[in-house]
Design brief:
The protein is of the alpha+beta class. The relative contact order is 0.29. The strands form 3 sheets. A 3-stranded antiparallel beta sheet has the order 6-1-8. The protein has a 3-stranded antiparallel beta sheet with strand order 5-2-7, with no helix packed on it. Strands 3-4 form a two-stranded antiparallel ribbon. The chain has 2 helices and 8 strands; from the N terminus they run ββββββαββα.
Length: 100
């Protein structure tokens, strides 16, 4: 998958699934079957206020990790064009400040 979306966790938890142990359990949720990672299978977890996906956008690479909700979650999704419009000027200012 292309790394074309930046995510901010608003509610819940999202984990990075270890590649060697990518089994997921299926849970019933509002009449639909959703795949949700078992927390013990995750190498890292993102909680409300934390974000991921920016590196793939900035480096223009394919999604480098597999992310799965470890509980019911609500995420803010920011597409590449919006991310670039808002965040790239911020990153440039931040990097220039680090150099000075």
């Amino acid at each position: 998958d292309a790394g074309d979306t930046f995510f901010v966790v608003l509610v819940g938890s999202v984990g990075v699934v270890a590649k060697e142990n990518s089994k997921v359990s299926e849970l019933e949720n509002v009449g639909m079957r959703d795949k949700v990672a078992v927390a013990s299978e995750c190498t890292k977890s993102y909680t409300p206020g934390q974000h991921f996906g920016e590196r793939d956008i900035v480096c223009q690479t394919k999604r480098s990790k597999t992310y799965k909700a470890t509980q019911d979650s609500l995420l803010l999704m920011v597409e590449t064009s919006d991310f670039n419009h808002v965040m790239i000027p911020y990153y440039i200012k931040q990097r220039l400040a680090e150099i000075r």
